[in-house]
Design a protein that fits this description.
236 residues; alpha/beta; Rossmann fold; Helicase, Ruva Protein, domain 3; 9 helices; 6 strands
């Protein structure tokens, strides 16, 4: 079932920024829907898909944080390091009201893991608990060994996200700097966009480096300051 939730550009924040406020481009309607699912006001399962850097992991973590603030038991689970072990790990998550399962498509092709995801999905459904999955591609474009797992995920609500454009990346950098008490010149933002990987995670990691370097200086972030911090980028 497709919920009709709009496709929006979202940005991944750092660990200190987990929350819906740190997501760029999140309109009120989509935020309200995500909050309702996190709070258990809506019993549904959700698939969030999009390319690297579009903010899938941040959405999942923000939903877990929101659920916990609402007094619910919630867990975030990254599947990637658990390949081959999901049959042991997933049953331990079934007591939660919300479980956010990041990158389940990283174990595709492993029948035991896909079967474990299938049984976990059914158990959470029976318990009227919610699951939120992240996928690199929409369900219909993802290859599963287990057709029943594909069928279950196809029945979820779906949110498709896009990576940020340059204007969104600039807004994200300004917001991340402001959250750390830094003031960043527009020219400095554009300098970073020209010289760094434009993936949201890479840009936020660079902001964290700047934050550490400027902690004692308490100075505006200018191009000369950035050149001092990132000399390897200065000639780019």
């Amino acid at each position: 079932m497709n919920s009709g939730i709009p496709q929006l550009p979202l940005a991944l924040g750092s660990a200190r920024d987990i929350g819906f406020d740190a997501l760029i481009g999140l309109d009120d309607g989509l935020r309200a829907r995500l909050e309702a699912i996190a709070e258990g006001k809506s019993h549904t399962h959700l698939c969030v898909s999009g390319p690297v850097g579009s903010g899938k992991t941040h959405v999942l973590m923000a939903m877990v944080a929101h659920a916990r603030r609402a007094g619910l038991s919630a867990a975030y689970l990254s599947v990637t390091p658990l390949r081959g072990a999901l049959a042991q790990v997933l049953p331990m998550q079934q007591s939660h009201a919300l479980v956010c399962v990041d990158h389940p498509d990283s174990v595709l092709g492993g029948y035991p893991d896909e079967e474990a995801l299938f049984h976990f999905h059914n158990a959470m459904t029976d318990a009227k608990a919610n699951i939120v999955y992240s996928l690199s591609k929409p369900v219909q474009e993802t290859t599963f060994v287990l057709p029943d797992l594909r069928s279950r995920l196809a029945q979820c609500e779906h949110v498709v996200m896009r990576a940020l454009d340059d204007a969104g990346r600039a807004q994200m950098l300004q917001a991340a700097a402001a959250a750390r008490g830094m003031e960043m010149e527009d020219a400095a933002v554009q300098w970073m966009l020209r010289r760094f990987d434009r993936d949201a995670r890479a840009l936020i990691a660079a902001i964290d480096v700047i934050d550490a370097a400027s902690l004692a200086a308490h100075r505006k972030i200018t191009i000369p300051f950035l050149r001092d911090i990132f000399p390897e980028q200065s000639g780019a």
